[in-house]
Write a structure and sequence with these properties.
The structure holds 2 protein chains of 2 kinds. By secondary structure, chain A is mainly α. Chain A contains 10 helices and no strands. In chain A, helix 2 runs antiparallel to helix 4, helix 5 runs antiparallel to helix 9 and helix 9 runs antiparallel to helix 10. By secondary structure, chain B is mainly α. Helix content of chain B is 66%, strand content 0%. Chain B is built from 10 helices and no strands. The radius of gyration of chain B is 19 Å and the shape is elongated. Classes of the chains: A mainly alpha, B mainly alpha. At the A-B interface, helix 1, helix 7, helix 9 and helix 10 of A face helix 1, helix 7 and helix 10 of B.
């Protein structure tokens, strides 16, 4: 398996004009990973015992998550199927860091496709859409594309196969939500889009926070750390937008917002937790390739 | 919601929403944090015992016990509830709040103490922890001074949402500071109640020029970005898995503060696809 130089190069070229400094945080560890991945592959390959233990631990975590979750996972009927998949031989064939990175990729794939679908709605991506919401959806989709390229590059650097399919546990739920959204009125639909985006962003942020203590490769950690805060920022803005839409104050979603006329509680609605939780994190190997 | 009364309905709805989110935070996030902190205390004691050729199993037991009793010691130092409970709410006073009370009274950040917890020997993960606590103290001091200045009418008209933002962000920084200091106490160290010795002079100089809400927001944004980037860098430095969990749970929150501040300032709230570390405080810079 070769390191995907094309994906990384594209990512770097696309982004260097707008955020060169920040991108270095992702680029440097990715480059370091090339040599590390080659060394690992040439010296010992992937440890099957380690992978089986990891799979077992994640199966237990999946069961706990499914029991706890009141959101997307609880609404799916695929938890048992995912648990079987995780316990299968195909799953155990890949390395633990690789599985974690593949799952992260699968979440990014789903995020990109969800924003793309949302931008196809006239009240999100059309000419009459709120310009702030439209810009946010467009920019956020591009940022998730960058994240996907970074996670895929990190995966191949460690000797894994890049994941380019969406997380299987969340696909049916998103499909169901999108079906409902397309039948809704613009005002109701906008709220549903924001709610769906927020849930996906939160799953991404919580998954990456959780992954920080699961990853063993230093550069995989650096890449993940440079992304998780961005997903949390998406959540913060979506929290604020959702609150304004629910309050019937969609016209106040401007840049900058009319801060003087906003209620006091608007000042804290974006960041409710002093410590970012992980209870909605996807099991770290849920989106691993088979 | 009506044009003549834009505040009433949305205020009630927003409060309800915030209350729901708070409940989730207390039910789920805080127990996980407590577990991570206790595990980190165990790791630190085990590492210390291993380094000294001692009994690492006994050290782990001692670590957990000291974490629990140390938590009480911090609570005593901050004059309130046990620190683990305090991590869930910082509406009461804190060590940093106490040391910066004169700053709040004068409406400046210049009166912060610079000796609390400094001068002790910290290494490894504990050096990161000490620096993090001092950085949180600078964050607390900045917001506290800003709130005091606003209350004194020095910043002109201050919208209610801005006041809520400042109070909530300060409260969360107090929670972070207590978490870091709980780890120091469990390791037999003093809690760090002083501000960051490197960036505090810069904050003080900038704060002296703040005359309105926009200026305060810009200063707060600088502090939040430094904090977020520092913890991001710390994630590459911290050895303990439980310590990584703790730092990872705080880094996104600082960047959320930054996103809201950017939004309020009229800047795009999520400007970068990747957060960097170019403004991070390096543990090697923290002199102990």
């Amino acid at each position: 398996v070769e390191f995907d130089e094309t994906a990384l190069s594209g990512l770097i070229e696309e982004s260097q004009d707008t955020h060169a400094d920040a991108l270095r945080a992702a680029r440097e560890p990715l480059r370091d990973m090339v040599d590390l991945g080659r060394q690992a592959r040439s010296s010992r390959g992937l440890d099957p015992d380690e992978n089986r233990t990891f799979a077992s631990e994640n199966r237990q975590r999946l069961a706990r998550t499914a029991k706890r979750a009141g959101g997307l996972l609880a609404a799916t009927g695929v938890v048992a199927a995912i648990a079987d998949f995780i316990g299968g031989p195909a799953f155990a064939a890949s390395g633990t860091d690789v599985q974690v990175l593949q799952t992260a990729s699968s979440i990014e794939v789903l995020a990109v496709s969800t924003y793309k679908t949302a931008l196809g709605l006239p009240y999100i991506g059309g000419s009459a859409a709120n310009p702030v919401i439209k810009t946010f959806a467009t920019t956020t989709m591009a940022q998730h594309s960058d994240h996907l390229a970074a996670f895929q590059a990190a995966t191949t650097a460690l000797g894994g196969t890049k994941q380019d399919k969406p997380d299987p546990a969340f696909v049916p739920v998103v499909a169901k939500a999108v079906a409902s959204i397309t039948k809704a009125s613009p005002s109701a639909g906008a709220l549903m889009v924001v709610g769906l985006a927020m849930e996906l962003e939160n799953i991404a942020a919580e998954t990456y926070v959780n992954n920080m203590s699961l990853l063993s490769d230093a550069n995989a950690k650096k890449v993940t750390a440079s992304i998780m805060g961005v997903e949390a920022q998406h959540v913060a803005i979506l929290n604020a937008v959702q609150a304004l839409l629910k309050a019937g104050a969609g016209a106040d979603i401007t840049l900058p917002p009319p801060v003087a006329k906003l209620p006091a509680a608007a000042g804290s609605v974006g960041f409710p937790n002093a410590f970012y939780p992980t209870s909605s994190a996807a099991p770290a190997s849920q989106g691993a390739t088979s | 919601l009506s044009a003549t009364d834009p505040m009433h309905l949305s205020e009630a709805e927003l409060r309800a929403m915030t209350s729901d989110l708070d409940a989730i935070h207390h039910d789920v996030a805080l127990p996980a944090l407590k577990t991570s902190l206790a595990e980190w205390a165990e790791d630190i004691h085990a590492q210390a015992a291993a380094g000294a050729g001692g009994d690492s199993a006994r050290a782990v037991q001692l670590g957990r016990r000291r974490f629990l009793t140390g938590a009480g010691a911090v609570a005593g130092a901050v004059g309130g509830a046990a620190v683990l409970a305090a991590c869930s709410s910082s509406s009461s006073s804190s060590a940093a709040a106490g040391s910066s009370s004169s700053a709040a009274a004068s409406g400046t950040a210049t009166a912060m103490a610079t000796s609390g917890g400094e001068g002790q020997s910290l290494s490894g993960d504990l050096r990161v922890v000490g620096m993090a606590a001092s950085l949180e103290n600078s964050g607390i001091a900045t917001y506290m001074a800003g709130i005091a200045a606003a209350t004194a009418g020095k910043l002109g008209t201050v919208p209610p949402a801005v006041v809520t933002f400042a109070k909530t962000a300060m409260s969360q920084h107090q929670d972070h500071q207590k978490a870091w200091n709980a780890v120091l106490i469990s390791a037999g160290k003093k809690p760090v109640t002083s501000t960051d010795p490197v960036i505090q002079p810069t904050i003080n100089t900038a704060f002296a020029k703040v005359t309105n809400v926009t200026g305060l927001a810009k200063l707060a944004l600088m502090v939040e970005d430094i904090a977020g980037e520092t913890y991001q860098n710390g994630l590459s430095v911290i050895k303990s898995s439980a310590g990584i969990k703790t730092a990872a749970s705080i880094q996104p929150v600082e960047f959320q503060h930054a996103a809201i501040l950017n939004f309020v300032l009229g800047k795009y709230p999520v400007p970068n696809a990747f957060t960097g570390v170019s403004s991070a405080r390096m543990p090697s810079d923290y002199q102990t």
